[in-house]
Amino acid sequence: MQFSIIIPTYNEAASLPHSLKDLLSSIESLSQNEIIVCDGGSVDDTQNIARQFPVIVLNTAKGRALQMNAGAQQAIGDWLVFLHADTRLPEKWMALITQCDGLWGRFDLHLSGRHWLFRIIEKAINIRSRKTSVATGDQVLFFKREFFHSLGGFPELPLMEDIAISKVARNHAAATCIPQQVITSSRRWEKNGILRTVFLMWFLRLGFWLGIKPEKLHRLYYS
């Protein structure tokens, strides 16, 4: 098995059909790859939609880190690819990862919104990630399976699990930064206000760095 694509979901009925159709069209051989949807107890039609596709559906405890770790425990692919339900991979993404010499990495990011501020935000995210070897889940983190398990999986935090595992992983191996862009939804930015969301993200990262409990940051993020 070459790739295990692990998708954590919670109430993603609106985005999941398009995401799975797009993903399946990009996979060269489903017999050599697997898609694992890890649902954290959705109360919408997410699970029923997922079961209409040739994917594995897992019922897990709610929490992105918990869900992704559960999927990773079931996965048998050489590479583990952690994909958000509202994110689309670039063309030939499988070849791009296969060509990597490293043990882990991420893609550059493109936000789906057309506002000019999104171009600045995504550029800043990509530069920061390249300089620090720290990536967010929206950039589609991928790991060699053995390496991922040697790290202990995602720290089981209610928020910032992507930042946390990046900081651990970079101590063992340099991150591969693939310049081809994944496209992730800008729905949260558009709903809550672009600048307000930027400042909130900065505050959350600063709070995490200062040692504020992730539970408090989680409540603030989802408030």
Description:
The chain is of the alpha/beta class. The protein has one domain: Alpha-Beta Complex (Spore Coat Polysaccharide Biosynthesis Protein SpsA, Chain A). It is 43% helix and 20% strand. The chain is built from ten helices and eight strands. Strands 3-2-1-4-7-6-8-5 form an eight-stranded mixed β-sheet. Strand 2, helix 2 and strand 3 form a beta-alpha-beta unit. Helix 9 packs antiparallel against helix 10. The chain is globular, with a radius of gyration of 16 Å. The termini are far apart.
| β-strand amount | 15-25%
Structural class, please? alpha/beta
Task: Estimate the global geometry from the Cα principal axes.
Answer: globular
Rounded mean pLDDT score: 91
Task: Going across the biggest sheet, name each strand in turn.
Answer: 3-2-1-4-7-6-8-5
The CATH topology comes to Spore Coat Polysaccharide Biosynthesis Protein SpsA, Chain A
Distance from N terminus to C terminus (CA atoms, Å) equals: 40 Å
Which spans have pLDDT < 50 for at least 5 consecutive residues? none
Number of discrete helical segments: 10
Number of distinct beta strands: 8
Q: N-to-C SSE series?
A: EHEHEHEEHEHEHHEHHH
CATH architecture: Alpha-Beta Complex
Rg result: 16 Å
Helix proportion of residues, in percent? 40-55%
Number of domains: 1
The CATH homologous superfamily: Spore Coat Polysaccharide Biosynthesis Protein SpsA, Chain A
Largest sheet: 8 strands, mixed
CATH class: Alpha Beta
